Amino acid sequence: MLRLFPLALLPLLGCASHTFQQGVFAKDGVRYRVGELSRGWRPLDVESNDVAYVSNDSPHSLAVNSTCAPDVDASLEVLTQHLLMGFTDRELVEERRATMDGRDSLRSRYKAKLDGVPVEMMLVVLKKDGCVYDFTYLSPPGRFDEKRQSFERVLSEFHSEAAR
């Protein structure tokens, strides 16, 4: 089950050559910085995620993705619903807007099932400079707060940069 969480996250992106070094992710047309995680997390190479981590000692995972399409103008709510594809028995626990990297973002906490397995999750969606950034944190039920600080660090240190 440990590997199920990251592999199921958002298989909406195609393959792209990219780099992720010292907290900076770069691929064609996009470059951003995220907070680095403690040694309690290990990176996971998953084609459908720009950046993905799984906890060393528990089935928690988190992922960051970017999609750049300047002519697409879906709302944060619609983008969040796209992230929920594949999840069943969805229950919205909390939803709020927050400023992130100088823009509005939508933070949504859900309880749901993935292939019949219960999960708790936080989804964060941000639109900036023609790109959509989404952040996903998954945890086993009742253990949401155990690793949440790591996810909050990734969010708080996120900054999009000019692609080189």
Write a structural description.
The chain is mostly beta strands. It has a single domain (4-161), classed as Protein Transport Mog1p, Chain A, CATH 3.40.1000.10. It contains 3 helices and 11 strands; from the N terminus they run H-E-E-E-E-E-E-H-E-E-E-E-H-E. It has helices at 4-8, 76-83, 148-156; strands at residues 18-21, 24-27, 30-33, 41-43, 51-55, 61-68, 87-100, 103-114, 117-128, 131-139, 159-161. Strands 4-5-6-10-9-8-7 form a 7-stranded antiparallel sheet, with helices on both faces. Strands 1-2-3-11 form a 4-stranded antiparallel sheet, with no helix packed on it. Strand 1 and strand 2 form a beta hairpin. The longest helix has 9 residues, at 148-156.
Looking at the structure, the CATH topology is: Protein Transport Mog1p, Chain A
| Helical amount | 10-25%
Query: What's the gyration radius in Å?
Result: 15 Å
Spatial sequence of strands, sheet with the most strands: 4-5-6-10-9-8-7
Number of domains: 1
CATH class: Alpha Beta
Largest sheet: 7 strands, antiparallel
Q: Provide mean pLDDT, rounded.
A: 84
Please report which band the strand proportion falls in: under 5%, 5-15%, 15-25%, 25-35%, 35-45% or over 45%: over 45%
First-residue to last-residue Cα separation? 38 Å
Architecture per CATH nomenclature, i.e. the level-2 architecture: 3-Layer(aba) Sandwich
> Total number of β-strand segments?
11
Q: What would you call the structural class?
A: mainly beta
- In CATH terms, the superfamily is Mog1/PsbP, alpha/beta/alpha sandwich
Tell me the overall shape.
globular
Taken in chain order, the helices and strands follow as HEEEEEEHEEEEHE
